[in-house]
Every structure is written in C-alpha cells, then in structure tokens.
Amino acid sequence: MSEPMTLACPHCHRRNRLPGERLDQAPRCGACKEPLFSGAPVDLASAQFNAHANADLPLIVDFWASWCGPCRQFAPVFAQAAATVEPRARLAKVDTEAAQDLAARFAIRSIPTLLIMHRGKEVARLNGALPPAEFQRWVDGNLPRV
Ligand SMILES: [Zn+2]
Fold first, then answer.
1. pLDDT per residue over 84-136, tens digit each?
2. 28 CA → ligand 1 middle, Å
3. Residue 9 annotated as catalytic
4. Domains of the chain from N-terminus onward
5. Which of 19, 27, 108, 120 is buried most, with the most CB atoms less than 10 Å from its CB?
6. Is 71 among the catalytic positions?
7. The 3-state secondary structure of 39-87, one letter per residue
C-alpha cells in the first residue's frame, strides 16, 4: 500500500484521497461517483483551479483563447495526450478570456502557454505549441513522480 494521495474530481471538483495504486483502477469520485479520469482535458474556471493545482496529482494546464489560431491547432494534440498521460496527471484547459485572474497570476504573456502544477507550485512552463511527439517528451521529462 502506498500513501494516500489527493486529487480533485473533474466533475464536482471535490478533493479525493486514494492510495496511489488505485489510480490505475478506474477510480470514482467519493462525492459525485463520477469517474476521476475521463481521458479528456477538463475545462477549469478560476474558482475550480486551486483544487486541482494544489493536489498531489500533477496538473498540466493549457492556457488558451478561442481567437488564438495556434491554440486551436494545438487543442487536439493536448486532448489526445490525455489518453496517454492520465492517470499520471490531470490535463486542464484555462480560457484566458474567462479566467483573466489566472492569466494575471501566472503572467501569461503569450498563448498557448503550458504549465505543470504540483502541490500548488509551478514546476514547468512551455511557451507555444509543440507537435505531439515533442509535447509528449516535454511532459515525460517534466512530470513529477507521484
Ligand atoms: Zn466528483
């Protein structure tokens, strides 16, 4: 048995605690009973961000905007990465138009910007989109082990 770890539900955003080895066993949220991993990025509003960013489970955030062409091009790369990266991390999208406080907090000056958050701290940052294989390498090289 490994130590319990915390992660937030992608549906109700409540904090869950579960042993690390259960990550691979299609765990469900203790509060809303929905799957804790859905194989897709979760759209986060400002009020929902900290629950995910402060968790033991690393969070990979795509800061984007609907008017940004490179963001739209990168969206399918990011979405497909969820299938291979979960459950080692949660993937999330933050709309910088809707969540301007988060864009300011992280000093997002260009989009897309990718951040890896772990236990409330930024551990990696990438400015600009990457092709799928290079994005995967960046994730693998920077993702904290949990
Ligand atoms: Zn839930």
1. 999 999 999 999 999 999 999 999 999 999 999 999 999 999 999 999 999 99
2. 8
3. no
4. 38-142 (3.40.30.10)
5. 108
6. yes
7. CCCEECCHHHHHHHHCCCCCEEEEEECCCCHHHHHHHHHHHHHHHHHCC
